[in-house]
Amino acid sequence: MFSFPAALEHYTDDRYMEQCSTEFEQCWVTGIIPERDCKIMTVTIGYASDNEQLTPDHVQTLRFSDVVAGETVAAVSGNDDYSLAWVVDVTCHNRSE
Predict the structure, then answer these.
(1) What stretches of the chain adopt beta strand conformation (E)?
(2) Residue 77: other Cβ atoms inside 10 A
(3) Predicted confidence (pLDDT) per residue in 17-37, tens digit
(4) Which residue from 20, 36, 74, 96 has the least number of CB within 10 angstroms?
(5) Dihedral (C-alpha) 16, 84, 68, 95: value to the nearest 10 degrees?
(6) DSSP code of 83?
(7) CB under 8 Å to 25, separation ≥6 — which residues?
């Protein structure tokens, strides 16, 4: 139940890994597939130290421009201070009509 309707695909293979920052040993890649076009889409990534946590210890916001409905957007994030990352929310700003 995101603010903006989107499907997720979690990738554990090496696709999009070239987009990972070399400063991090851990990198998470999630494909965001929006249901509608969006001029600016933000994806909030949550990080936690414990797999049982329901709320993140830290959040990061990724921003994407000119997103097209049905096309996969790779949300690539890294943070070696945490053992877990997940998409907390997807939001569309200035949605295309």
Answers:
(1) 6-11, 28-34, 38-48, 58-67, 73-77, 84-93
(2) 22
(3) 888 888 888 889 999 999 999
(4) 96
(5) -150
(6) S
(7) 78, 80
Per-residue CA distances from 68 to 19, 40, 53, 73, 77 (Å): 20, 10, 33, 9, 21
Instruction: Report the distance separating Cα 94 and Cα 12, nearest Å.
Output: 32
pTM attached to this predicted model: 0.87
DSSP 17: G
Neighbours of 7 (CB within 10 A): 13
User: Can you tell me the distance from the alpha carbon of 97 to that of 86, in angstroms, rounded to the nearest whole number?
Assistant: 29
Identify the residue whose tokens are 């201070």: 81
* Residue 49 CB coordination number (10 Å): 12
Count how many residues are written for the chain.
Answer: 97
